[in-house]
Amino acid sequence: MTDTENVSQTISQTASNSDAVTATAQFLAPVVLGLQALTINGKQAHWHVRGANFIGVHELLDTVVAHAGDWADLAAERIVALGLPIDARLAAVAEKVAPTAVPAGFTKSGEIVRDVIADIDKVLADVKAAIDGLDEFDLSSQDIAIEIMRGLEKDRWFLFAHVAE
Ligand SMILES: [Fe+2]
């Protein structure tokens, strides 16, 4: 037996138990897909916003997109670190994520901010479900969901402040 064969036989793919692995994939996969969709639809909004506060909203939407991409990576790599794959190909995202509220074409800033907030709220519902569902299975995965919740709610506030009465 070579050293390589020996290693592959004695080191398991993950140190976590199977319930933790399964729950992590179950609860974080929708979060990954929703955040990947937000990166694409947020860019759509970034490119087509018009009207009041143009520069502020245009630049803030890029921040929202960048954060969404970072958090998708964080959640996806937690699943993979525990040994499972995730299908986050574009077709899978399109199939499993609800349609965006962001329209095609140029859109007034107040309207497009509300649309992006609506998209964020759909992601937040999955993030909240992940926090609740992972509580009894894997606290490290839950911690990732909590980090995403904290950050995404802050970005939501930054957007909301543009349209608050
Ligand atoms: Fe840009």
From TrEMBL:
Name of the molecule in the record: DNA starvation/stationary phase protection protein
Pfam families for this protein: Ferritin
Family named by the database record: Belongs to the Dps family.
SUPFAM superfamilies linked: Ferritin-like (SSF47240)
Entries under InterPro entries matching the protein: DPS_DNA-bd, DPS_DNA-bd_CS, Ferritin-like, Ferritin-like_SF, Ferritin_DPS_dom
Domain called Ferritin/DPS: residue spans: 40-163
PANTHER family: DNA PROTECTION DURING STARVATION PROTEIN 1, GENERAL STRESS PROTEIN 20U
GO molecular function: ferric iron binding; oxidoreductase activity, acting on metal ions
Organism superkingdom: Bacteria
